[in-house]
Amino acid sequence: MKKSGSIAVFLCSNCGTDYPKWLGQCPNCKEWGTLSEYKVPKSKRGSKNRTPSESTSLKDVLKKGQTNRIPTCITEVDRVLGGGILPGSLILLGGNPGIGKSTLALQMLGKVEKPSLYISAEESEDQIAMRAKRLQISSSEMQLSGENHVDNILEQIISLKPEVVIIDSIQTVYSDSIDSLPGSVSQIRESGQQLLQICKERGVTIILIGHVTKEGIIAGPRMLEHMVDTVLYLEGDDRYDHRILRSVKNRFGATNEVGIFQMQAKGLIEVENPSELFLAERSVNVAGSAIFPSLEGTRPILVEVQALVSSANFGTPQRNVNGFDLRRLSMLLAVLEKRLKLPMGTRDTFVNLVGGLRIDDPAADLAVIGAIASSALDKPIPQDMILIGEVGLAGEVRSVSQLEKRLVESQTLGFKSAIVPKFGFKKANQTPQNMKYYQVDSVRKAFDIIFP
Ligand code: TYD
Ligand code: MG
Known about the structure:
Blueprint: E1 8-12, E2 18-19, E3 35-39, H1 58-63, H2 75-81, E4 90-95, H3 101-110, E5 116-120, H4 125-134, E6 142-145, H5 150-160, E7 164-168, H6 185-202, E8 205-211, E9 230-236, E10 242-250, E11 258-264, E12 267-270, H7 274-279, E13 289-296, E14 299-311, E15 319-322, H8 326-339, E16 347-353, H9 365-377, E17 385-387, E18 390-391, E19 397-398, H10 403-412, E20 417-421, H11 422-427, E21 436-440, H12 443-450
Parallel strand pairs: 4-8, 4-9, 5-6, 5-7, 7-8, 15-16, 17-20, 20-21
Antiparallel strand pairs: 1-2, 1-3, 9-10, 10-11, 11-12, 13-14, 14-16, 18-19
The structure holds thymidine-5'-diphosphate (TYD) and magnesium ion.
Thymidine-5'-diphosphate (TYD) binds near residues 95 and 135.
């Protein structure tokens, strides 16, 4: 028998999939204990007097012309967004508590010469004003509000007609049509849906701030990722003062673009030359350090890979890694052991990417394996040398993407030689002239050059 009253589904807070009944594990994303009940509000179920929206021809839409982006005047943010804020887009800004999301959001509004609205249910208006004073923002176009009811927020947007709205944070917004606490999956989904609607209807840009949990996942807001146009994450380490703004999804721009900032007394300051920042405290002529020209989005950034290999005190050796994939590290250790006959099975290995950067690019393989071998052999890698290349299971060195860009940046920072993949180097057409290139097709050949 079908119940006539409420309809409930079970929503996964990790991936947003819904199910008719509760399950311990989400079959879609395989996370445990993420499903919770979501009562579908009455208004959402098919009503009889629904009016269909009219369709428009593509030609008419094109005739209206390109929508102009609103520059935030913060170069790093504009680049990550793909050239400024696009009117009518919904943006999710995620990050750990205390990382600087509110600061960044406020700074973004500070220079926008358009009517804007900052909605914060987390902090009082006085607190926001104090922060604005500290950041030296005195925009006359900015309105503050402490509202956290989604219907009232929508009303404020309609009456104040702002062009950019910041909601700090989505976890505090709630809707009456759902009877669960603010911050729950169903509340976030419902408010997100309503904000998305107004965003598209009125062409207003809404930036939703979402807190990430300690484990690095945005509980709840994560499922908003499907709904929004752009997902930005502000990352960083408590131990360092630099912050990385990363775009992981962007319907209107490039993904994987990064912006780098330093948190200072007057807010987030742009870092114009990140390589210099990451190499600033580099120790030279120490075994276990290799330099790798990483590519973050379209921008090359030089990073130092550090490795430490020591004999294991316990039966099972430790493998610890910061900023690099642990499984990839295990693979590289196996290559060292099998192809280069370097015994790694009884040794602890620690790998660290200096400065809290995280790299998924396989082009870093050669630098990682080089740093490990350097530490194991206790022979330093020449200080003006960079290492690039993907390492395959047979110990071969494979070509990487955008080699030229990486080499140009290395040359600019004064590096004199580079170990590069043979195949990729032949294809590259414009490499800096005054650098010495060693073209290799295997790790063994690379090691013959680095550790003669
Ligand atoms: P905040 O933007 O409140 O973080 P979030 O909104 O992500 O929780 O920033 C919190 C931290 O930033 C806090 O520890 C203080 C520091 N901070 C500065 O160092 N300089 C500044 O100018 C501001 C505004 C904050
Ligand atoms: Mg905040």
